[in-house]
Design brief:
Layout (H helix, E strand, L loop, with lengths): L11 H6 L4 H15 L4 E2 L1 H7 L5 H11 L4 E4 L2 E4 L1 H12 L11 E4 L9 E7 L2 E6 L5 E6 L10 H20 L10 E10 L2 E10 L5 E5 H6 L2 H8 L14 H4 L3 E5 L7 E8 L2 E7 L5 E9 L1
Antiparallel strand pairs: 1-3, 2-3, 4-5, 5-6, 6-7, 8-9, 9-10, 11-12, 12-13, 13-14
Length: 296
């Protein structure tokens, strides 16, 4: 089994402390500018010329703080290492320094808490949240990074967030954390929502604790057999946004057993346009077709 190896790990306080200087941040920005011109390695002189410093010794001081943590040095010069690239892209994206803006957006979709079909997307406490206009039930939430709003309309922002979350969910339930690449454990758990307890498919990273989850029916919706089932009826289920899946899932029958004893088993009857498809899901979120699609 492989593990993190090589040099001794850097203490988090030391790593973040290395960035506690506007000049060192400017060094990382110099590499970002160079990358746009197709250059990934810069000489000492090229870095010095890109910055406003009083002396070369001052640059040497700052490079000493960055080397090994965010920079690597070779005979050709300096280049960002993986951590340096991550920090540089976070700086460019405004991940830690900017706050996105998002005007409320009216949507149509089925509320899971009432018969309402009028929804609204708003920016709340760092999240893009879709709620029912009538009862206030939260339908879905998305992370909203600052870069996501640049050059897009509110509708395009929402759709972009939905596509990104779908990708992150698929990667995570496949056993790989979409945030850090660590191992993700998967399973079926009960979650409290809207005053009731429902079963959810959950993936939890064993390294960074990132968690993603979706109702078990939504998890089954992504299975190739279900995608093909809807495709035959002229519906691209891979394009159904999370805020609108209720209009399809409401017709399904979902039965969960064994959750209390830690051995969950899920039976799902997919229904659409007078036909049905029976599937089962185990504790590891694997899905099998029980009965092929047929008329009811």
């Amino acid at each position: 089994m492989t593990d993190v190896g090589g040099e001794s790990p850097v203490e988090p306080a030391d790593a973040f402390g290395a960035l506690a200087s506007e000049h060192r941040v400017a060094v990382l920005r110099a590499f970002a500018d160079a990358e746009r011109d197709g250059e990934r390695t810069l000489s000492f002189t090229e870095i010095y010329d890109a910055l406003e410093l009083d002396s070369t010794s001052q640059l040497s001081y700052h490079l000493d703080h960055l080397e090994g943590t965010f920079l690597r040095r070779s005979a050709e010069g300096y280049a960002l290492n993986r951590a340096g690239e991550d920090v540089m892209r976070a700086i460019l994206a405004g991940s830690f320094t900017e706050t996105p803006t998002f005007e409320p957006l009216a949507l149509s979709g089925e509320c899971p808490g009432c018969p309402g079909t009028s929804l609204e997307a708003t920016y709340e406490d760092g999240l893009l949240t879709v709620r029912c206009v009538d009862c206030g039930t939260r339908v879905v939430t998305y992370d909203l990074p600052p870069a996501a709003v640049v050059g897009r309309s509110e509708r395009e922002v929402l759709e972009a967030c939905d596509r990104r979350v779908r990708h992150e969910y698929a990667v995570s339930v496949g056993g790989t954390c979409a945030k850090c690449g660590g191992l993700a454990s998967v399973g079926v758990e009960e979650r409290e929502s809207r005053g009731r307890t429902d079963p959810y498919a959950v993936a939890r990273c064993e390294r960074c604790n990132n968690r993603v989850f979706a109702p078990v029916a939504a998890h089954v919706l992504f299975h190739p057999a279900v995608v093909a089932f809807y495709w035959r009826h002229g519906v691209d289920s891979t394009a159904i946004p999370f805020w609108d899946i209720g209009r399809y899932l409401d017709a399904w029958d979902v039965d969960v057993t064994g959750l209390k004893v830690g051995e969950p088993s899920v039976s799902v009857q997919v229904r659409h346009a007078g036909e049905s498809l029976a599937l089962s899901m185990d504790a590891d979120l694997s899905v099998d077709v029980v009965a092929s699609a047929g008329a009811e």
